[in-house]
Specification:
mainly alpha; 69% helix
């Protein structure tokens, strides 16, 4: 089903949540509690911030990235980068 521009913000949040769950499985951190323990973030704090990624602070995002290594494109989209900017950055990094 094609995505519409009007729901782009919602899709970015959903993509981020999906990517976090996918990486949790890859690193065998299946519960939020185990992810929180591994990343050094309080369990209740992480649960609330994963439900609403807009509340995720940069310091906590850094800890998550260092712990489970999510797709950089998903993280950049959450931070507000547009897809063409993300593609441009990925071309620069691979060159």
């Amino acid at each position: 089903m094609p995505r519409i521009h009007q729901c782009a913000e919602r899709y970015v949040k959903e993509d981020f949540q999906t990517e976090i769950r996918r990486q949790q499985g890859q690193y065998n951190l299946m519960s939020v509690r185990s992810l929180a323990r591994a990343s050094g973030i309080a369990n209740t704090t992480l649960q609330a911030k994963l439900r609403d990624p807009d509340k995720l602070e940069v310091a906590d995002l850094r800890k998550l990235v260092a712990t489970i290594h999510p797709d950089p494109g998903v993280v950049l989209a959450l931070l507000g980068y547009e897809s063409r900017e993300i593609k441009k950055l990925s071309l620069v990094e691979s060159a």
